[in-house]
Amino acid sequence: MPLETLVATELAEPVDPRVTTMAAALAARYPGASRSVLFYGSCLREANLDGLMLDFYLIVSDYRAAYGGGWLAFANRHVPPNVFPFEHDGLIAKYAVLSEADFRRLASASTRNVSVWARFAQPSRLVWSADEAAAEEAARAIAGAAPALLAAARPLLPDALSIAELWEGAFALTYGAELRAERKGRASSVVAADPGRYARFTAPALAMAGLGAAIEGTTVRFAEPVTIAESQAGRGAWRRRRREGKALTLLRLAKASTTYAGGIDYLAWKINRHAGAAIQIKPWQRRWPILGALALLPRLIARGAVR
Asked: Which residue range(s) make up the domain with 197?
């Protein structure tokens, strides 16, 4: 089955009706600009959403249509995405805003930054769309994510490995390319949550990435072994991703202090939930969130809460 068809089928899978209602309310905040709303992240695997922070991407036609110009449009265009909190009908969420053009670019191999293609190589749901054209555009964009992930990871992977090891190895590389608050073994748990899904996606994603491989049972054997030069180039590319990704995370954090109310409290919640830490935010850190977040980093890195 073609990868885009697999993606479209997965996007259409049902979710908790409250998520659909919340997505429609979110889209209504940007009348005339909203194109699609995507639900993704660990909450996809949760039966009870109460007390959890849901994750959405709001895809808009363009930033001027969404914001009417000004700082928010400028920030979203130059340091995408903008991230905002949202509450509806007892549920809480954060949502990231991207234009259709930026989403298509950032979900593909045309960018070194892992932020979008790493997330959308994982399962997601299309929970609202303006029309059929918007739904099709979202599916096309997301279909580029898994090939981008596997193509980037290939130079650092063995020539033969299991399907699970293929995806786990690729996701582990992406977690290292951002300041992520994730427990060790997070990549394995992501794949283990739905191994059948990753088995279905493997052959079409490899083909779309231009990676020749034979799949024998649960084993993937690449047609061409990685050369020393390719391995060295791949390691260099991932070193750049790590440097750029961590710097971009700090830049986004600084920007979020102007767009995300209570952003430092969300940061602490995220770290505590994913890394098992016990971070408590002090009043001065809420008053100066950029300095407060930066002050946390050395201690968090030393303790392994973020990497």
From this structure: 147-234
